[in-house]
TrEMBL record:
Pathway: Carbohydrate biosynthesis; gluconeogenesis; Carbohydrate degradation; glycolysis; D-glyceraldehyde 3-phosphate from glycerone phosphate: step 1/1. The lineage of its organism: Bacteria, Bacillati, Actinomycetota, Actinomycetes, Micrococcales. It catalyses: D-glyceraldehyde 3-phosphate = dihydroxyacetone phosphate. This is Triosephosphate isomerase. It is an enzyme of class 5 (isomerase). It is found in: Cytoplasm. Keywords: Cytoplasm, Gluconeogenesis, Glycolysis, Isomerase. Belongs to the triosephosphate isomerase family. Its EC number is 5.3.1.1. Its main location: cytoplasm. It comes from Microbacterium horticulturae. GO terms for molecular function: isomerase activity.
Length: 255
């Protein structure tokens, strides 16, 4: 596992934007990337995760930029009688390099449990997609480090023996901070990130890893966290191009 990975800024559009607004956002993100030398050099990595129907239009809007494409979900099987399923193989063919796995909203709204997360992570790895694995405790009263390390271990249990993950992005998203006006306090974030890094460093299955923070992440947070994290998982606060540009600028100052 590399000690100093690139600063990763992953942006999920969730289901906030329709297709035309997604395309406009993607065009703006591409221009931000073109204007930032650290993104062009690969030191700051931007990953856009649009809704599935907007995937192809987003890919076209990002063409010629260094913004990478990801999907918000996948199914655990690649082919078969699974109505509505999203094949990891198809996502790869559609130009995706990343896929989100295990977000709290998938767990609470769609009923996904640890077994499903485990199978989806294995499907992502099998299809050459870099998983963005979301972990996080439900309450600020819980031991976030213990909960998140256990969730990480559980997700990795689904890998076929001998399987190696070229890269894993772990997004620490405390459930109690998602959708709030402010992110979790820095003093709550850093020990959990440190515990996840330690667990990853001692896992021979993971060749390279990053630990990023999500959960109402917004401009100003990365400056306060510094290299205590490897980047941010951004949601609604990055759907505005000006705010996104501020975060990209903050990431550049960490190098």
């Amino acid at each position: 596992m590399s000690d100093r990975p690139a600063v990763t800024l992953a942006i999920s559009l969730k289901l906030y934007l329709d297709i035309p607004r997604t395309v406009l956002w993607a065009q703006q993100a591409a221009e931000i990337a073109r204007g930032q030398p650290t993104v062009r050099a690969g030191d700051v990595r931007m990953v856009a995760l649009p809704s599935l129907p907007a995937l192809e239009a987003t890919r076209a809007a990002l063409e010629g930029s260094d913004v990478q494409l990801g999907a918000q979900d996948l199914f655990w099987e690649d082919r078969g009688p699974y109505t509505g399923g999203v094949s990891g193989s198809d996502l790869r063919q559609a130009g995706c390099g990343f896929v989100e796995v295990g977000h709290a909203e998938r767990r609470t709204v769609f009923g996904e449990d640890d077994t499903i997360v485990r199978r989806k992570l294995a499907a992502a790895v099998r299809n050459g997609l870099t998983p963005i694995l979301c972990v996080g405790e439900d309450s600020s009263d819980l031991d976030g480090s213990a909960v998140c390390v256990a969730q990480l271990a559980s997700a990795l249990e689904g890998l076929t023996p001998g399987t190696a993950i070229d890269e894993l992005v772990v997004a620490y998203e405390p459930v109690w901070a998602i959708g709030e006006s402010d992110p979790a306090p820095v003093e709550a974030i850093t020990p959990v990130v440190a515990a996840l890094r330690t667990a990853l460093r001692h896992d021979d299955r993971v060749a390279a890893a990053s630990v990023i923070y999500g959960g109402s992440a917004r401009p100003g947070l990365l400056t306060r966290l510094g290299r205590e994290v490897d980047g941010l998982f951004l949601g609604r606060f990055a759907h505005d191009a000006e705010r996104l540009e501020k975060v990209v600028g903050e990431a550049a100052t960490l190098l």
